[in-house]
Amino acid sequence: MKYTKEHEWLRVEGDLIVVGITEHAATALGDVVFVELPEVETMVAEGDEICVIESVKAASDILAPLDGEIVAVNDKLVDNPSLVNTDPTGAAWFFKMRVEDTSVIDDFMDEDEYAELIG
User: Fold this and answer.
1) For residue 13, what are the β-bridge partners?
2) Distance (Å, rounded) from C-alpha 112 to C-alpha 93?
3) In terms of CB atoms within 10 Å, which end of the chain has fewer, N or C?
4) pTM for the model
5) Neighbouring residues of 109: CB distance < 8 A, sequence distance ≥ 6
6) Gap between the Cα atoms of 119 and 115, Å rounded
7) Which residues, other chains included, contact 112 with Cβ-Cβ below 8 Å and sequence gap of 6+?
8) How many helices (H) and strands (E) does the chain have?
9) CA distance linking residue 114 with residue 32, whole number of Å
10) Max CA distance (Å), the chain
11) What are 20-72's pLDDT values in tens digits?
């Protein structure tokens, strides 16, 4: 698993990259009450705002970590947004994307570097 400075996690699954938010981000948000997901087949550019998360504390955006195409979304989050709080790095993935080369995630932080970031 790799991590972004925006507190997203990335995991390669076959020829796709799965994206979610870290436990640190989920804890900081508090109780998540709403998740808006992107449309499947949407082409995104790195840095695009593509998801919205609302909690009892704040609203936050999830940014596209890479250029690519959204090929799947986790509809379970729409019906049960609290999954983000209970299983942020497992069942609460947000979307899967196809990128030109999955090895690009090697440039992101590993677990130790992320732990240092959130210190």
Assistant:
1) 16
2) 21
3) C
4) 0.94
5) 2, 3, 4, 5, 117
6) 6
7) none
8) 4, 9
9) 23
10) 37
11) 999 999 999 999 999 999 999 999 999 999 999 999 988 999 999 999 999 99
Residue written as tokens 């497992």?
90
Q: State the CB neighbour count (10 A cutoff) for residue 113.
A: 11
CA dihedral 49, 53, 56, 57 (to 10 degrees): -30
Length of the chain measured in residues: 119
User: What tokens does 32 get?
Assistant: 């998540």
Q: What are phi and psi of 111, to 5 degrees?
A: -60, -40
Give the right CATH number for 2-101+110-118 from 3.30.470.20, 2.40.50.100, 3.40.50.1820, 3.30.465.60: 2.40.50.100
